[in-house]
Each structure stands twice: as structure tokens, then as C-alpha cells.
């Protein structure tokens, strides 16, 4: 069932035009800015994911980006505009090396689908679920409204988000 939800949400996201995504990315980025704090974990977009990289370029705050490892773990490294990146085995741009950041205030995560209760459906590898489980800060998901489902099927290991920001709404976990 999760795979069906994933497939449906990805099809909707991929159906958005490049122009729609650009407009929605700008709206989502503007909505995200007030929630950012001193040090923020953020991601580099893959495929048709929400692109919020403009937030990093136009901010005085610090950012860290993830690097994945074979044991389904992630570490975060300080983002520098000219830092060397490489594609991971999943096709995602990641830092080659850098200064590891182990503490941050806010984590912004990509998602495949979400619901109004701030449940998140990712690509199914569990990297973010494992990290979020022990994270003490605010976790914000960003996605397009077309990715919202009525109800995300959750399993014991799935971690919910504190909020989800789309181009039309901000959903806050109750």
C-alpha cells in the first residue's frame, strides 16, 4: 500500500510543469524562511523535489547538507557555495567531505507524500526516519500541495514531522 501511495504522489509531483514548480518553489521558500534558525539541516533537491536552495543563497544563517552511508545512516556537513559535490548511489548530490555538523536547530526534509497530520512518506530507504528519531529540533517537511494524501500509512519506525509547508498551506502537527 505504501508503494501505491508513493507511486501516486510521485506521478502527481512529476506532472507539475517546470514553470509551476519554479513558482511553487519560490512560494515555499518564502514561507520557510521565518522558521529557520541559526543552524539548519537542509537537502539538495533530487528530480522533481521542492527546490529550496535559494534559501541558502539568500540567508545569513548556517546550513548543513546530508551525506548518506551504506548502513542507511546520514551525516551532515557545513554547506559552502563552492564545496565539491558528487552524486550518491541514489543520484542525489552530496558533499564529498567537509566540516561535520552534529547539532542544528531545524531540519528541512524532502518528501514524496504527506498528510494533514504531518506524517511523511519518503522514498522508502529510511534515512530521514533514522535521523529524525533522535533529533531534538524542529523538523519541517516541504512538498507541493498535490503530494498531500488523505492518510499516510505509518509503520512503527516512521517518524512524523513538526510541520509541512506547501505552496498553499502550513500544516502543524497537533
From TrEMBL:
Name the UniProt key words of this record, in alphabetical order.
ATP-binding, Ligase, Magnesium, Metal-binding, Nucleotide-binding
Q: What class of enzyme is it?
A: ligase
Q: Which reaction does it catalyse?
A: (6S)-5-formyl-5,6,7,8-tetrahydrofolate + ATP = (6R)-5,10-methenyltetrahydrofolate + ADP + phosphate
Q: Which PANTHER family does the annotation name? A: ATPASE INHIBITOR/5-FORMYLTETRAHYDROFOLATE CYCLO-LIGASE, CHROMOSOME UNDETERMINED SCAFFOLD_24, WHOLE GENOME SHOTGUN SEQUENCE
Q: What is this protein called?
A: 5-formyltetrahydrofolate cyclo-ligase
Q: What cofactors are annotated for this protein?
A: Mg(2+)
Q: Which organism is it from?
A: Amedibacillus dolichus
Tell me its EC number(s), please: 6.3.3.2
